[in-house]
Amino acid sequence: MSELLNVEEIFASKVFTLGKMKERLPKSTYKEIKKLMDQGGELSLETADVVAKAMKDWAMENGATHYTHWFQPLTGITAEKHDAFVSHPDEEGKMIMEFSGKELIKGEPDASSFPSGGLRATFEARGYTAWDITSPAFLKEDATGVILCIPTAFCSYTGEALDKKTPLLRSMEAISQQALRIVRLFGNTGATKVVASVGPEQEYFLVDREKYLQREDLIFAGRTLFGAPAPKGQELEDHYFGTIRERVGSYMKDLNVELWKLGVTAKTQHNEVAPAQHELAPIYETANIAVDHNQLVMETMKKVAGRHGMTCLLHEKPFAGVNGSGKHNNWSLGTDNGVNLLDPGDTPNENIQFLLVLACIMKAVDTHADLLRQSAADVGNDHRLGANEAPPAIISMFLGEQLEDVVKQLIETGEAAHLIEGGKLETGVSTLPDFEKDATDRNRTSPFAFTGNKFEFRMVGSADSIASPNTTLNAIVAEAFCEAADVLEKADNFELAVHDLIKEYMTKHQRIVFNGDGYADEWIEEAERRGLPNIKSMVEAASTLTTDKAIRLFERFGIFTRVELESREEITYETYAKTINIEALTMIDMAGKKYIPAVIRYTKSLADTVIAVKEAGVDASVQAELLDSVTVRLSAAKKALARLKKVTAQAAAMEDVKAQAFFYKDMVKEVMDELRTPIDELEMMVDKSVWPVPGYGELTFEV
Ligand code: ADP
Ligand code: MG
User: Which atom from ligand 1 is nearest to the alpha carbon of 334?
Assistant: First the structure.
């Protein structure tokens, strides 16, 4: 029997929640903080001092020795530099633990070693971290001890964003302001802000740590760069929602507890489609906190795996031939007086505010499909989007039968008089109830699907931060709201104007709606006919950040400056080039030091066998043929290895980052495939005992 878990007690026990602030802060300070959280504004140093003291006391009561400004540089992961609370001892040598308001609200880490895309010359390498008061401080506990983590934004000396949080926060302000104009038009004067809410479903793989440590590709690249398929993959569909194995179950239990302590509402867990693949989904929350929490989820997943003798792989494509991992980013908008802007209600055809919001989102997604695609680009995701896996790299919107029909009526007649009802689902068993069928049915192949009261953006990669996708979503929808409000606020006859606008937007942007099978080849042709962009890779997507259209959008709402966008484009190329370079070097290392030597030894023993069998006076043709096939592949591998060394060196020497990134994509990756093919074929031919690393079967079925 396991010990009793009191979730209510452990939930957020490591978070300096609003509740704890209320308990520990003077009433006036608490009120000031609460107001800043709700309405924004700047924290005075005096208040910061009071908060810092309470925070430090609470942290120390819980064993903390250090604090850190926890931030999210453009590496896509989080960064922290620990400072102990220790100060100068007093005259008698007694230690006084200190943490001031200034230390709480501002940090000055050396920024020179973080990616900045040329934004920051090294002579002014100083960066600033500033407390994001809307995201609560928390305690991280591991072998380092207990560390008080303060979520912060990270900017350069001259104020440019060097992180993922700053633009996200800016985008949240933009969407709030513009969405407020929309709800006000419909008479909602009580709302003071509109909040973007996000629930990210996180997919991951678990492999045995001992086996993981035998594979350099998993260690250095996070994915297998070689590997023949196991006899069994996911074809029986027996893993999805299957019974959770004991070892994985005990991992999930530990993971949940750790996350609950951090205030993450881990809710759903299940086995995913591929062998060794799983998923965890939390309950949605404010975009900004959801982004922070998703980082904590990823980090905790890795940490807890170690305790269970496993390694958690977050890479988008750890294994060829079975599904990769994504992150479904559920996104919605709600007012602070409880209205979900994406809730169609029972009669969406009569819900004009909803229809306007929908029309604006259609316009936003169609106008900026390229940016949305870019926001989900990362190196690993190139194996999913536009490669042989879903969703496709083409952005389209799924609305479901009912809404699609409403949109159609509006386009044709300007009115949506009737509504397709879901109807009853008859189970045919007298003891089972009949269900009301949901009219917003499901489509698993759409990259951007309406699912009842939210959109589910399914392109995002499993290892990626969800900050960029949500920044982009907020920005593009803010623009559409702004343009709609500009028209409607001036209209003499609001009813008429709003009807016209809905019809206009839906007509103009109906090409973005697609309810069919997004995986089918016909869709690629159809999308091309519709003029929808099909951006196949991360490097091709990068330049969408700096089109005139993008710069206009982001500058208009103060989310990114041109310079910031240019730097992000450059970082994309750099990241891509560096990642593929690591992959290529890892392949060179593994092929040269492991696979090829192992196969050479094998051919020696085969050759000995051939001679011995012949000497014995029997037919040795089977052994000789095998030796021949192995040798053919060995020589192909040797040639490809030499070629890979050459192109990788050539790539590494290139100066122009953009050209370099494209060279890695077009040349180096091709030669990587050339090397992989003969090695994978050899894996299936030679004696298992000579193979130098664990194969797919052992990695994915023996967890
Ligand atoms: P499915 O796998 O069927 O898509 P899940 O239950 O695994 O569903 O995940 C749905 C996610 O959507 C959860 O994280 C949930 O909290 C989130 N979600 C639900 N309502 C909203 C909303 N209004 N805004 C953002 N996310 C939401
Ligand atoms: Mg989902």
Answer: 23
Question: If you measure from the C-alpha of residue 664 to the centroid of ligand 1, how many angstroms do you get, rounded to a whole number?
Answer: 37
The amino acid present at 165, given as its one-letter code, is K
pLDDT band for position 599 (cuts 50, 70, 90): very high
Is the model's pLDDT at 431 over the cut of 90? Answer: no
Tens digit of pLDDT for each residue in 99-143?
999 999 999 888 778 888 777 554 566 789 999 999 999 999 988
* Index of the ligand 1 atom closest to the CA of residue 268: 7
8 Å CB contact between 178 and 481: yes
332 lines ligand 1 (CB under 6 A): yes
Q: Residue 572 C-alpha to ligand 2 middle, in angstroms?
A: 27
Residue 348 CA to ligand 1 center (angstroms) comes to 20
For residue 542, how far is its CA from the centre of ligand 2 (angstroms)?
Answer: 27
Q: Containing H/E element for 39?
A: helix 27-39
pLDDT, average across residues 464-468: 98
Of 577, 539, 578, 583, the residue nearest 660 (C-alpha): 577
pLDDT at residue 426, rounded to an integer: 74
Q: Which of 172, 197, 280, 330 to mutate to test the pocket of ligand 1 (most atoms within 8 A of CB)?
A: 330
Residue 204 three-state SS: strand
Among 240, 448, 454, which is best to mutate for testing ligand 1, by the most ligand atoms less than 8 A from CB? 454
CA of 354 to the centre of ligand 1 (A): 19
Ligand 1 lined by 453 (C-beta under 6 Å): yes
Angle between helices 352-367 and 494-509 (to 10 degrees): 40
Which helix (H) or strand (E) covers residue 148, if one does? strand 145-156
* Pair 51, 33: CB distance under 8 Å: yes
Q: What is the pLDDT of residue 167?
A: 97
Query: Pick from 125, 128, 107: which is nearest to 116 by CA?
Result: 125
Residue 458 near ligand 1, beta carbon < 6 Å: no
Nearest alpha carbon to residue 291 among 474, 96, 142: 474
pLDDT surpasses 90 at 72: yes
Strands 145-156 and 194-208, bridge-based pairing: unpaired
Task: Indicate if ligand 1 lies below 6 Å from the C-beta of 363.
Answer: no
Task: Name residue, tokens 């001092």.
Answer: 49
Helix or strand holding residue 281 (H, E): strand 277-282
CA-to-CA distance for 400 and 513, rounded, in angstroms? 10
d(CA 448, ligand 2 centre) in Å: 11
Measured between alpha carbons, how far is 272 from 204 in angstroms, rounded to an integer? 9
Measured CA angle at 274 (ends 268, 277), to 5 deg: 45
CB of 201 within 6 A of ligand 1: the answer is yes
CA distance 40 to 124: 29
Confidence check: pLDDT of 153 > 60: yes
Other beta carbons within 10 angstroms of residue 107's beta carbon come to 22
Give me the count of residues in the chain: 703
Tokens read off for 398: 């799924």
Q: Which atom of ligand 1 is nearest to the CA of 279?
A: 7
In the beta sheet, which residues pair with residue 285?
Answer: 198
pLDDT category at 666 given cuts 50, 70, 90 is very high
Q: Kindly give the number of the ligand 1 atom that is closest to the alpha carbon of 284.
A: 16
Give which of 488, 457, 459 is closest to 359, Cα–Cα: 488
Q: Cβ(261) to ligand 1 under 6 A?
A: no
- Encode burial over 114-140: b for 16+ CB neighbours within 10 A, e otherwise: bbbbebbeeeebebbbbbbbbbbbbbb
Residue entry with tokens 């979520």: 151
